[in-house]
Amino acid sequence: MPQSPLSKLAFFLPIQRRAVSRPPSHVEGFDSGINSSTAWTVSLNTPEVELRKSQVEINVDSLSDEERDPGIESADEERDLLNERGRPARALYGFQGKPEFRELTDVEAGDELEILKENAGNGWSLARLVASAGERDSHEGEIGLLPSTYYTFTAEFALNPELDLPQAKSRRREASDSTITPRGSPIRQSTALPLVPQNTGEWFPSFRRSLLGGKSLNRFSSFVTSGAEEWVLQGTGEEAEAPPKHVQEASDSRNEGDNTHASMLGGTAEADRHFVEAGPAWRTKVPAFRVLVHSPAKRTSTLSGAYTMYALTSIFDAPPDGEALAYGGAEAEGAEEADTIRITVHRRFSHFVALHTALTRQLPGIVLPPLPEKQYAGRFSDDFVEARRGDLERYLNRVVRHPVARYAEVLTFFLGCESDAEWKKQLPYYLSLPPKGPSFYAHVYHPAFNIDVDEAAEAVERFASHARAVSKGVQGLRNIFGKVREARIEMSHAERLLSYSLLSLITSKPLASAPTPEISEEDEEHTDKKKGHVNEDGAWCWRDGCDGCLRLTKALQKTSETMQTVADLYDDHARRTLLSAHESLKSVAHPSTVYQAVVDTHISTLTRYREATQEGCEDEEVAARCETVLNTTMAEMETYHTQKVEDFENLAKEHLDGEIAFYEQVLTRLRAARRAFDSPQYDALSESPRQPSIYERELDNPRLFPAPLTQPCPHVFDSAPMRPVSVAIQEGVGLLLGGVGSPTRASVFGKFW
């Protein structure tokens, strides 16, 4: 029985869809222009999940760069909250907030609180300070935000004398027979653990990226914001699901692990389970594929105005023979007949923002490439649209290259959903999912006791030093590459000037703006009236009927025209081929900034690990969870190592191939010009009079001033690049007041001065 293309798609990529009950959508119409064909509906029998109660309302038609927080929606709601009496609570730890962010400014452990809104968004609660535990009274009655884990709800409890609470005992770890061990058991200790501050998000991301070179203004480290600290100290609130039996018995060899992959693809919630192999390195669960971003088109919506829509084509190549079982290919009948599967959808930039937001929340321990920043001016120009298309294509391909992010559920939905109705129904669900936090690490499975603390400390030190060196070196390479492109433009200018000069020599027509100090102005005025410079056949000779000079003149004219072609090749090479390579260097720039979160998390985890294994203060559970985080960070370092080798190898090959193709075109044209001086072509040139060159008309107005060289759009982590919004403001001020911003325009107010 023939299989549909959608059923064959399971051979390449596991797609998980959730059957959820949602409130009716508040959005009417979808202006993305996506195909209304059958959606990408291959399922892995994911169990039903419930949306969290605080469902975020998302306007799909006009997704903005910043998602609205599910906190206080209006001033009326805030006023109602302030007047009502909240649930009694007591502060567990001191908290010094910042008033500019509406946080409680002075809270000490033991203060009485009233929680007005428990879930104010992003792990914060709206609270009122009722009574101070100490002698302070100046802040009583203050209302502000407080992290949800900094307090506990209070109630009256009576002591049960018959209840015997056993003393907490320390357990020693014993070696496990399994090679992959889950780390999901929560800690239950009698002593209070340090509180985990919540992630308050980034402040002014464009300002942060441009002026601070990618450094975050967040008060908390990535060790805290990713949920790694909470996982290390407390575990997760729910028991981690044990890995399947076949995973526990799997070995590190690929041959014995082939059946493992086939079994995993049929499990439930497989996209949320991640495996680390010996190395440590991430296990690849699905075959690699690539994405093309192409065919940008300008669209207009009544809600969001004009925008650019991009076509995204995912290309799935059939795995080589012998790897079908590893990726579950044997389950799909007829998969061997399909060499390549292509799926095309249409997305706008705001959809990429939604994808990046969801991936960041669901994969906190994974390094994701930075998303290109939003453009504020000139976003419909041809140069910018092409640059944005290339940036988005590089972003997506770096995401799908990651062995873990590649099979994220929201990514498969983003790349495969062709149905308008399905898109409007599912996208708000993915954006409303809370951050994974510690539960991400609870579903990371790795070989038991495979981390040596000294080796891990040395590895992160060497990695951080290497990343800094690469960042500095790539930045220098990008600067030199820009100079190389400028040199090619100068070479184009020189070749063109040489061509014009040679053509002027054999035609007696002066070249405008060419320096001729030996000739006086009087001689130049009568140059065209002088006889004898060319004969009646147009040959460069004073004798009529001179075949030798006719052949020479026509051969030199062909040489001049060839130089014009070579000049065009130099110009095109600098503006297209070298620009593409110059843009590609952004994908390998700033590894030190991109992986800084991994380095910080790794170092902080090592500190916790040493504390948990210190003699006399052993805590086997904390040490075990530290191993999970260390496996994750070292797997990320290994991923960077693998991708760095691939990136620079591809960059070098693509640049050399481009240079070879360019010089081959130049050589082909130069050889053709050279053959014009050899028989029999040279002898045949005297058979007819010389025809004027197409470039003679340009001698009066030569093309010696090329257009400015297009530069790559800046990387989001470049330090203080010129932003399009700054250019727009400068031009606007110049238009109003005249001067620098708009040198060719008169001031609007000029007539009044």
TrEMBL record:
Keyword field: SH3 domain
Biased composition (Polar residues): 177-191
Domain SH3: 84-156
Keyword Kinase: no
GO biological processes: endocytosis; endosomal transport; plasma membrane tubulation
TM stretches of this protein: none
GO molecular function: phosphatidylinositol binding
UniProt domain PX: residue ranges: 288-421
Matches recorded under InterPro entries: AH/BAR_dom_sf, PX_dom, PX_dom_sf, SH3-like_dom_sf, SH3_domain, Sorting_nexin_WASP-bd-dom
Gene3D superfamilies according to UniProt: Arfaptin homology (AH) domain/BAR domain, Phox-like domain, SH3 Domains
Keyword Cytoplasm in record: no
Basic and acidic residues: compositionally biased ranges: 242-259
SMART domains tied to this protein: PX (SM00312)
Top-level division of the source organism's lineage: Eukaryota
Start and end residues of each stretch annotated as Disordered: 164-191, 236-265, 513-532
GO cellular component: cytoplasmic vesicle; plasma membrane
Name used for this protein in its record: PX-domain-containing protein
Organism whose genome encodes this protein: Obba rivulosa
